[in-house]
């Protein structure tokens, strides 16, 4: 493997000159720089990433932890993170936690020991946890996504779920629905609670009645939506519309309704949340609340890099706004 000494010998310059050209650390004339670069190319020289990281105290690598899920929402956010890292010249190490706290802390420890420049966490099952390992690495910036209260210093990127839940229920009301149910995510999770609160706010504004049998808590997965709808069905007459708090559960609801011969939207209207890519290919295509998933990932990377450049000292919350996507799963009530 060629070294800077080999390049210096071939280019007839000093080793320090080669270093300045390769690291762009000092002005070198165009003629000498061209000679050095030509020699480096002839020798197939590849700079040592490890040596450079020790010198600059940067590895140009970010770490990201996500909770494994069948929900493509996570994959679409990760795509935004990966693309942004590539555009900024950074590598990404991605770890799945499988929803396991021990695996989460082990992965964080491993990434920090590998000297990643920053961390992105998307593991909402651990909101409110104090993660002791961060105390040992106070200079490594951390960005969390879609968490509630945290017991460690970090920036936060989140969707305005309160607003999104309100938009969803308000749209159903504007379409003439007055009997509106809600299938929530796990209410011990901040974003699930906020979507539910938005739903309640819209109904309260209109003075609409809440039916306990039409409000079912579930798990944000397809099987949860399927089971939640069956539980609602067993409790008695259905509402005319249901706000399902993510698209994956809405898929399960559509499946369960089809099994019972309930036409959507003819007999039951549905609105989801997230606007995952397959939502428009469901049958019927799903009216939903769009989360800017790619932008969530992009914002996380940009926030970390601002921290690394010392252009932002205080922790901040960046909130992205949801929007309504109208498709075919909501009927207009006369």
Automatic annotation (TrEMBL):
Residue span(s) of domain HTH lacI-type: 2-56
Keyword Cell membrane: no
Molecular function GO terms recorded: DNA-binding transcription factor activity; transcription cis-regulatory region binding
Record-linked CDD domains: HTH_LacI, PBP1_PurR
Keywords, comma-separated and alphabetical: DNA-binding, Repressor, Transcription, Transcription regulation
PROSITE patterns: HTH_LACI_1, HTH_LACI_2
Domain of life of the native organism: Bacteria
Family matches, as PANTHER family: LACI-RELATED TRANSCRIPTIONAL REPRESSOR (PTHR30146), RIBOSE OPERON REPRESSOR (PTHR30146:SF145)
Protein name: Ribose operon repressor
């Amino acid at each position: 493997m060629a070294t800077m000494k080999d390049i210096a010998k071939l280019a007839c310059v000093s080793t320090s000159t080669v270093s300045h050209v390769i690291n762009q650390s000092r002005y070198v004339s165009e003629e000498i720089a061209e000679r050095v670069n030509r020699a480096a190319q002839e020798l197939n020289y590849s700079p040592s990433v490890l040596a450079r990281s020790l010198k600059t105290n940067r590895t140009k690598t970010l770490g990201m932890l996500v909770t494994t899920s069948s929900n493509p929402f996570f994959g679409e956010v990760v795509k935004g993170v990966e693309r942004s890292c590539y555009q900024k010249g950074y590598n990404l190490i991605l770890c799945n936690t499988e929803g396991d706290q021990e695996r989460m802390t082990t992965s964080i420890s491993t990434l920090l020991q590998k000297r990643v420049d920053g961390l992105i966490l998307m593991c909402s099952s651990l909101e409110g946890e104090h993660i002791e390992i961060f105390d040992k690495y106070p200079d490594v910036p951390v960005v969390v996504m879609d968490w509630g209260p945290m017991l460690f210093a970090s920036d936060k990127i989140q969707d305005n779920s309160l607003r999104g839940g309100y938009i969803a229920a308000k749209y159903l009301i504007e379409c003439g629905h007055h009997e509106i149910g809600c299938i929530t995510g796990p209410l011990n999770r901040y974003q699930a609670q906020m979507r539910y609160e938005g739903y309640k706010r819209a109904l309260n504004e209109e003075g609409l009645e809440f039916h306990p049998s039409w409000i079912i808590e579930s798990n944000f997965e397809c099987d949860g939506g399927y089971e939640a709808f069956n539980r609602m069905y067993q409790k008695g007459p259905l509402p005319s519309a249901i706000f399902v708090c993510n698209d994956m559960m809405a898929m399960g609801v559509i499946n369960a309704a089809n099994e019972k011969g309930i036409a959507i939207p003819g007999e039951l209207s549905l609105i989801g949340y997230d606007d995952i890519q397959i939502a428009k290919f469901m049958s019927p295509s799903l009216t939903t609340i769009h989360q800017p998933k790619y932008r969530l990932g992009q914002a996380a990377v940009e926030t970390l890099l601002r921290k690394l450049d010392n252009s932002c000292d205080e922790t901040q919350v960046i909130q992205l706004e949801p929007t309504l996507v109208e498709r075919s799963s909501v009927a207009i009530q006369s």
